[in-house]
Amino acid sequence: MGRNSCCLKPKLRKGLWSPEEDEKLFNYITTFGVGCWSSVPKLAGLERCGKSCRLRWINYLRPDLKRGMFSQQEEDLIISLHEVLGNRWAQIAAQLPGRTDNEIKNFWNSCLKKKLMKQGIDPATHKPLEENMEAIKDEKKNSTYNNEKPKMEAIHHHHHHHLHGNISKINEESSQHFVNKIEFDSLSSYLNGENNNNSNNNGGGFSWESENKLENLLEFQTNQMKNLEFKGSSSVEESKIIQNQINSATFGSYHPLMSMSENERAGSFGIFHHI
DNA sequence: AACAGGTTCAACCGCGACTTA
DNA sequence: ATAAGTCGCGGTTGAACCTGT
């Protein structure tokens, strides 16, 4: 179709956002809401393109954003979701309240990928690295045969093992519930190609239908996480213990840059104190 | 202290999908 | 039907920061 990028227009600012710009955008969106992004900069008095404003709001200014490190539960969930969804960051982010696709993508690329590699797991396939090498060899060997079924069985087995391993960290009851649900409601039907309406869909590959089926079970796990983090204990003491467990399970992704700019922003305009 | 190399993450870019005129 | 505008996504970039020497 050929159109100019909005950011190519002269005069428009690029790069890091100043606290003043943040304030203008924040005040505008909280007052008038999110409407047409292309008109936001003009109405908010910003020399930015609408796209840049949208991104800034979604990734940084939105009041419902969760700040700080990813919890162990979030980490497990991201890995599990990535295993099923691949690099569909927006869909993964949709299952983690308060997290953005950009944040999760960065976390994946900077931390989780390496962590999986260290564990001998290929972050792209979520299979053991050696198994991958063998699979490649086999594929070359048997390239004329139809390998679909054995492959799917291997993946199913792996999902069973991996998902169970991840979820057991949350707690036994929820893990059992989750595993039951994920295995019998969604993954097994997806992985076994029993997806009624889409059985002819890409020869058993990923489909939107199967993805939709995931929503319920993902919502379930998210709720479990919420329960664990915010409700799960009846006393303050218990919740402290759980919070400590969560904190101790996390690993260093907390960025001073983030906290610094957060403080800077909070200090630079008081409106954030009201959120 | 100074520098180099590595890491992190906010922001940009290009593209496809969707909507509107 | 289609051109133009808009939105949202995923990949990439580069400045800021960290760490080791």
From TrEMBL:
Residues 9-61, 62-112 form the Myb-like domain. The keyword Transcription regulation applies. GO terms for molecular function: DNA binding. It comes from the Eukaryota. The gene is LOC103502379. It is found in: Nucleus. It comes from Cucumis melo (Muskmelon). PANTHER family: MYB DOMAIN PROTEIN 55, TRANSCRIPTION FACTOR MYB86-LIKE. Residues 9-65, 66-116 form the HTH myb-type domain. This is Transcription factor MYB61-like isoform X2. Signal peptide: none annotated.
